[in-house]
Amino acid sequence: MTSKRQPLHEWTVDPDTAIALQKSLAPRVVRHDEIGDVEHIAGVDIGFEEGGETTRAVVVIMRWPSLEIVERVLHRKPTQMPYIPGLLSFRELPAALEAFEQLSVMPDLLMVDGMGIAHPRRLGIAAHLGLWLDLPAIGVGKSRLCGQHDEVPDSRGHWVALTHRNETIGGVLRTRERVKPLYISTGHRVSLETSIDWVMQCLTRYKLPEPTRQADRIASRRTAETRRPEESAAPEQNTLSF
DNA sequence: GCGACAG
DNA sequence: ATCTTGTCGC
């Protein structure tokens, strides 16, 4: 029997409703390790086109530990909510969720561009996505949303705690010397320490871990792959698997 | 009331 | 996030 998972909640574009949802969902986020064998890791990132009118979600699936790309999905969807600090997931997840529906392989771990629980109400985009898909997830942010931290030693692999309201919500990790550190945090079913470990394991020669870096390249850059299909050929095609 | 503010 | 060329430095 195929049972279709019921969605966590109805979507909304109302700020107050979104905040209320975050408060009720945050307690359900699992902050300890509840992760099995990892065969595939997904990198998730969102980009925008036409001045923000269109949201472009990209999911890259990599095999572990080879880190070879085994699948990529690019999905476009009309943007229906503005960017509001703290409500990022409500703007970017709709497109991402539809991208996941296109996958032929479900990953065992997610690495999302943005915060996990390092969020004012402890439900950043990585936590929200992990909770929705019920998959282990790690938040990989490039800048700070909230919380305070000491200066990070300029040595690859070193990190300091990110604290907010008397609680450690993440870690600020130096993934490359002389380069701005990354803000790592639990998304779902992965502890902070394990999250940092996975990020380090996925580093090559760049600032970002491979899953996020690959997704980022495709989502942000307007290259040959990012090219929209010919309007005359297939006007309705907004999804590309390659 | 005054800043701060993921992508 | 996005608009954008070249340029300085490890």
UniProtKB/TrEMBL annotation:
Cofactor(s) listed in the protein's UniProt record: Mg(2+)
Composition-biased stretches (Basic and acidic residues): 213-231
A GO cellular component entry from the record: cytoplasm
EC number: 3.1.21.7
Annotated compartments: Cytoplasm
Chain residue ranges for the region called Disordered: 213-242
Residues that, per the record, bind Mg(2+): 45, 113
Site, as annotated: Interaction with target DNA: 83
GO terms classed as biological process: DNA repair
Main localization, broad class: cytoplasm
Swiss-Prot/TrEMBL catalytic activity: Endonucleolytic cleavage at apurinic or apyrimidinic sites to products with a 5'-phosphate
UniProt entry tagged with the keyword Lyase: no
Family: Belongs to the endonuclease V family.
NCBIfam families from the UniProt entry: PRK11617.1
Protein name in the entry: Endonuclease V
Source organism: Kushneria avicenniae
